[in-house]
Amino acid sequence: MERDLNGRVAVITGASSGIGEATARALADRGAKVALLARRAERVESLAEELSSNGAGNAIAVEADVTDRESLERAAERVREELGRPDILINNAGVMLLAPIERGKTDEWRQMLDVNLMGVFETTDVFLEQLLDGGGDIVNISSVAGRIGIAGAGAYNATKWGLNGWSDALRQEVLGKDVRVITIEPGAVNTELADHISDEDAKQRVESMPESFDILEAEDIASAIEYAVSRPERVQISELLIRPTGQPN
């Protein structure tokens, strides 16, 4: 029997677009209360108004930056006060700044480490005590790049491989505490990730992928997340790799 999501509280980082936005819609449609965390306040405020007005579920917009511990702590306090104890944490915020290693884009390497790794560590740390107080799910959005090395994506690879290892360590640490740790590893998805790539060659390669095969939509990943968190309590989907059917690696 599926786990009922009605009334459950879901915290989603990077909720202003892409997978985060699509997941917020999917969970709200199931009656979940959603806290939309993002730096772009106007976009999450608009989404929260839309979800609440549609009657799909309570939604609040929270301006927060996963690299800013104080903003995360304020967010956790507000979520608890306005929606209740979190049941689901979705660590979705991330950046993909692709470029060959030889180009030496050290600032971009550090940015990916700060957002893709430290951002997940800090966000989880801020919300973990509440999740342990009654159980819940932690969903970490990794990537196919966390499984295979990709030329031109070395630093991004490193963050996603690191996230996969950290996620399984956390899974083992919370065994017996009614908290499931779920790692989602998407392949190519139609999101805004490529918009921030500064290396023109890398950006062109990513943007030309749809010419070779049908890439995924954010809703495809959202439906997988919805499936994973709605499994019976005895079931933990530890890892879920989701590629476009035509993606070769």
Q: What's the CATH topology name?
A: Rossmann fold
Q: What is the CATH class name?
A: Alpha Beta
The figure for the number of domains is: 1
**Judging by the overall fold, what is the CATH architecture?**
3-Layer(aba) Sandwich
User: What ranges have pLDDT less than 50 throughout 5 or more consecutive residues?
Assistant: none
Note the overall shape.
globular
Q: Give the biggest sheet.
A: 7 strands, parallel
Report the total helices. 7
Run of helices and strands: EHEHEHEHEHEEHEHE
Record field, number of beta strands: 9
User: Compute the gyration radius: what is it?
Assistant: 17 Å
How far is it from the N-terminal to the C-terminal residue, by CA? 35 Å
* Class by alpha and beta content: alpha/beta
Helix content: 40-55%
Classified in CATH, the superfamily is NAD(P)-binding Rossmann-like Domain
Query: Reading side by side through the largest sheet, how are the strands ordered?
Result: 3-2-1-4-5-6-9
Write the topology of this structure.
Layout (H helix, E strand, L loop, with lengths): L8 E5 L4 H12 L3 E6 L2 H13 L5 E5 L5 H14 L5 E4 L14 H27 L3 E6 L12 H20 L5 E8 L2 E2 L9 H8 L8 E2 H12 L9 E4 L7
Parallel strand pairs: 1-2, 1-4, 2-3, 4-5, 5-6, 6-9, 7-8
